[in-house]
Structures are given as C-alpha cells and as structure tokens.
Automatic annotation (TrEMBL):
The keyword Mitochondrion does not apply. Keywords: Membrane, Transmembrane, Transmembrane helix. The lineage of its organism: Bacteria, Bacillati, Actinomycetota, Actinomycetes, Pseudonocardiales. This is ABC-2 type transport system permease protein. The chain crosses the membrane at residues 18-35, 55-72, 93-119, 131-156, 163-184, 214-234. The keyword Glycosyltransferase does not apply.
Amino acid sequence: MVTLVRAELGKAAATRSFWVIGAIGVVFCVGWAALDVFVFGGRSEDAYGMAQQGYLFALILGILLTAGEYRHQTITWAFLVTPGRGRVITAKLVTNAVIGAVLGIAAVIVTAPAAAIMLSATDRAVYTPGVPGVLVASVLTTALWGVFGAALGLLIRNQTAAVVIAFVWFFYVEWVLIALVPAVGRWTPTGVSKAVIGMSRAGFATPGDLLPQWAAIVVFLAYCGVVAAGARVISVRRDVT
C-alpha cells in the first residue's frame, strides 16, 4: 500500500494542476482571512479558521486526479498491474487525504501569520486559547475534503460533470436550502466542515447554529466514509472502459 501511495503522489506532483490549484488555494485562504478581519469583523479564531477555506481546492484536486484517470485511461493500467482493484482505490483515497493535509498545512503556514498581522493592525487579539485547535482542525477538514473529492471523481468518472456538480451544490443548492430551511445549514457538508473548526456561524445568507464540534466531526467523517465506501464498491465492480 505504501508503494502504491508513493506512486500516486508522484503522479499527482507531476501534474501542473496540482501546483497551480494548490497555490491558488493558499492565496484564497489569505484573501478570506482579510475579508473576515476587515469586512466581517469576526472573532480571532474565525480569522485563523480561514485557513480551512482551501477545502474547495482540495475537493477539486481530488476530483481532477481521480476522474482524470478515467479520462486518460491510466486507471486501466493501474488495475491491470495491481492485484485487486480495491487496493488501487484505497491508495487513491489515502493519497488525496495526504494531498489535502499538505494543502491544509501550507494554508495554515501562510494564513496564520497573515491573520496575526491583520488582527494586530486592527488592534484585536492576535492569539486566543482556541487558535491552535482551529489550525489543527483546518488541516483535518482539508484532508477530508480531499478524500471527498477523490471519491466523487471515482463515482462520477467524468471530470467536467463532477466539477460542475460540486460547484452547483456548494454555490447554489446549499444556499437555496439554507434560505428555505435555515436549520438545514448545520447538516450540510459545508456547515459541518465549519463546525469542525469551531467557526461562530455558518457563513450563509441566513446562518443557523452550527453543530457541536464533536458531533460535526462524527457527521463529517460519516459523509466522507459513505462516499468513499460507495466509490470503492462501485469502482471494484463496474467496467472501466
């Protein structure tokens, strides 16, 4: 399994999209931290929590890396040379968890000092006891979003369709659901993800109370587990051509 994961990481690092999307994701996090400090006026923990905003890019990377294998038919060779399709799928999911974690760590390394500088410039608390937990949770959620994206790519197989579905859900469907039934916000993937890092509100047009952190972790793990298990079962059984 370690050999398979290393091979998958090597393939990912060899693609231009890996570096471009990752870099944009880190910059995106800093931009959100600036918005939180200078526009929204959120808590100090919320500013540091913007390191988690790279989740969308971990999701997209996961989709592109797995669905792209079906597009280029490279996954066929992986299945042929590796005993058991399940091992290949598991390796891809683990790889994208690692990639998500690396993206999360990079976002924390860049966003944390930027947030501290901006908070200091506005005469607000630069550090609070909750900050370390927020940063650790940001890395955890970004890693899980990488798994979610990889599983989604394996399920749908078409890169364009998978990315479009993800964007429609996160930028339209969730907002409509929250507007119609605000209480749903705490159960959506985005709302649960924000609760994991302990953000003070869902961040939607009509924010509702978020789940307790422990409950959010359980629900988020369940979401990722269900999608990943579905991707593994379907990928093992269906024809790759």
